[in-house]
């Protein structure tokens, strides 16, 4: 496996060499326990993660596997969408395609940036930060940390995206209204994530110019988010609707068509209600499903099924 080092400076080792325990097949490294008069740094111990052959393989494998799965799902989506009897399968394939595509694009971008940095500056780890700073400047360390945390964030983001899309694909026809719940939850999570990133980024930028300016960052970012939360959230809802559109079974669509006809004058008469009840019984829909479908139709802005 390789790629891991344990560094220890025991009591009394000031100015001497550090004890370094390297994992098997790791490239050897050396280090000191600072100067003889720098007692504040001793004793201490820490791990240094570095790259290894299997680590590099694990880095790029998820991107290639997600890309292959994305191509398979895209082919299935294209094949099913032209068949009226297989629209549910087409929607499932589309959802899985978007989940794998998001992972391939987001994580693939970060892996590409990491590979490009290694090609430009060579394969280095945290033990080489000091020497790289002296030869290449502090900007390289900033870029290293930016890509490091960006890669960690990409793991979280792609996991969330895949989870939502896979849940939508599996349960959209099993639980009535699950698609709306997933869209709302996804939009809320996206709003909170983007707001948090904006707040942290703004705080760090302001702190670099004005010591203690984090409170100002809270006002700069927080106030617009509070004031503009509705249009921002609506935009995120529209984005979520593109990823996870409304999904109805054939029976639910038939009932909505009948309900739309009955609602042309915006009034349900007793005879029309009897007709709708008979239609629901014929289609195998229970009272709760009928109520949810009618509520969904009534909440549409135009009063028509989208």
What does this structure look like?
The protein is mainly alpha-helical and 306 residues long. It has 4 domains: 4-49, no CATH class; 51-174; 175-247; 250-299, no CATH class. It has helices at residues 53-80, 87-121, 129-136, 138-171, 178-209, 214-227, 229-243, 250-262, 270-283, 287-299, and strands spanning 4-9, 19-22, 44-49. A 3-stranded antiparallel beta sheet has the order 2-1-3, with no helix packed on it.
Average pLDDT level: 78
Please state how the strands of the largest beta sheet are arranged side by side. Answer: 2-1-3
N- to C-terminal distance: 54 Å
Order of helices and strands: EEEHHHHHHHHHH
Radius of gyration: 28 Å
Q: What sort of overall outline do the alpha carbons produce when their principal axes are compared?
A: elongated
What's the main sheet like?
A: 3 strands, antiparallel
Strand elements, count = 3
Number of domains: 4
What portion of the residues fall into strands of 2 or more residues? 5-15%
Q: Report helical residue fraction.
A: 55-70%
Q: How many H/I helical runs?
A: 10
Task: Give the low-confidence spans.
Answer: none
**Helix-strand makeup class:** mainly alpha
Key phrases:
306 residues; elongated; mainly alpha; 3 strands; 3-stranded antiparallel β-sheet
Outline of the structure:
The chain has 306 residues and is mainly alpha-helical. The protein contains 10 helices and 3 strands, in the order βββαααααααααα.
């Amino acid at each position: 496996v390789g790629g891991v080092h344990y560094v220890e400076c025991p009591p009394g080792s000031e100015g001497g060499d550090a004890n370094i325990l390297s994992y098997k097949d790791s490239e050897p490294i050396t280090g000191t326990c600072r100067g003889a008069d720098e007692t504040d740094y001793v004793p201490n111990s820490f791990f240094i993660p570095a790259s290894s052959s299997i680590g590099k393989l694990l880095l790029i494998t998820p991107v290639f596997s997600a890309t292959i799965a994305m191509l398979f799902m895209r082919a299935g989506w294209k094949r099913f969408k032209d068949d009226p009897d297989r629209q549910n399968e087409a929607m499932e394939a589309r959802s899985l395609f978007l989940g794998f595509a998001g992972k391939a694009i987001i994580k693939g971008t970060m892996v590409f940036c990491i590979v490009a940095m290694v090609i430009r500056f060579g394969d280095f780890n945290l033990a080489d930060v000091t020497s790289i700073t002296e030869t290449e400047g502090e900007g390289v360390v900033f870029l290293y940390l930016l890509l490091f945390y960006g890669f960690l964030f990409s793991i979280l983001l792609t996991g969330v995206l895949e989870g939502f899309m896979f849940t939508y694909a599996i349960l959209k026809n099993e639980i009535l209204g699950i698609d709306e719940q997933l869209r709302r939850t996804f939009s809320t999570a996206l709003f909170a994530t983007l707001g948090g990133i904006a707040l942290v980024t703004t705080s760090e930028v302001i702190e670099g110019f004005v010591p203690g300016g984090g409170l100002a960052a809270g006002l700069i970012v927080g106030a617009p988010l509070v004031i503009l939360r509705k249009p921002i959230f609506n935009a995120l809802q529209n984005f979520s609707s593109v990823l996870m559109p409304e999904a109805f079974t054939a029976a639910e669509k038939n009932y909505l068509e009948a309900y739309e006809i009955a609602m042309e004058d915006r009034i349900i008469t007793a005879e029309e209600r009897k007709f709708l009840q008979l239609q629901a019984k014929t289609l195998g829909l229970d009272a709760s499903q009928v109520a949810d479908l009618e509520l969904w139709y009534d909440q549409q802005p135009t009063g028509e099924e989208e």
